Amino acid sequence: MFSPIDDATATRMLAAQQHAAAAFERTPDGAPVWGWRGRTIGSRVDGASGPAWLRIQSARAGQAGGKIWEGTERADQLMPNLAKPALLALHDWEVDGVAYRAELTEFVTDPVCSPDSVLRTELELPAEWFDDLRANLAIIAAVDTDRTVISQDYLDRTMPRFMNVVAGRATRAPAWTTAHGDIHFANLTAPNLRLLDLEGFGAAPAGYDAATLYTYSLLAPRTAASVYKAFADILDTSAGRFAQLAIATELLQSCTRGDNLDLRPALERRVQALIGPPLPAR
Question: What is the pTM of this model?
Fold first, then answer.
């Protein structure tokens, strides 16, 4: 589960939501959906032209911009044929030393497959749904970009902390490709597939998206098995196994911050299956 959002952050972001909705001549409708530690807030909004989705992010004034800030806009420009919500409008402003960006996107009627990034309930998804997902991930992989999801420097520094590898060759990704970067079932819809939250797309170890979806599904073993079957030709390669270790590193590190603690035993079992017992975090 996400770490708690402090009251000051919640109050500030809810005020930003109201401001952006008014700027777009829309009215919030429904409970807000929070990003990690209140970094973003999203909700349905209604207006004369029908429903849409409003997402807001914030940064200290002078620090706005960069990969996440521009990600939705760049994804809309570079991947127009991807099964994702279309970007309708942007709105930027500053208040009390804080910069905000609001993104108004097409409203998706199909529900997300999971309310949380870590899947805790089994899903029933047909093979055709996974075929569609694979086709869309191939569109992302073909994008040429200098953006990054995860860096080789991060892998060199962090992987040795959480598993039985040494810095250097054992932490070098065999290959790189462009990835969505946050493919879990809370960012995927069904029965009609839409890929949500593309703001973090960029270069990652080959197989990273398949490894992410599988790893975030470990608490729902039947669904995890379906994911693995759909992506076995990727996950069973040396690159795919490395990608699983890469995402496990990120998630084990997040556990040290108190996030998704119920996933940790399954992560450690997966790491052990791949390379042996994980080392204690240092």
Answer: 0.90
Residue 135 shares a structural domain with residue 66: no
Domain range enclosing 168: 127-275
- As a whole number of angstroms, the distance between CA 37 and CA 33 comes to 11
| CA nearest neighbour of 53 among 130, 125, 3, 112 | 112
What's 168's domain CATH number? Answer: 3.90.1200
Give the DSSP per-residue string, 147-206.
Answer: -BSS-HHHHHHHHHHHSS--SSGGG--S-EEEE-S--SGGGBBSSS--B---TT-EEEET
Asked whether 200 and 187 are in contact (CB, 8 A), the reply is: no
CB 205 within 8 A of CB 239: yes
Are the beta carbons of 101 and 91 closer than 8 angstroms?
Answer: yes
Distance CA 4, CA 20 (A): 24
Which residue, among 189, 246, 177, has the nearest Cα to 215 in the 3D structure? 246
Say if residue 169 is in the same domain as residue 229. yes
Summarize pLDDT for 34-93 with one digit per residue, the tens.
887 778 999 999 999 999 999 999 988 888 888 889 999 999 999 999 999 999 999 999
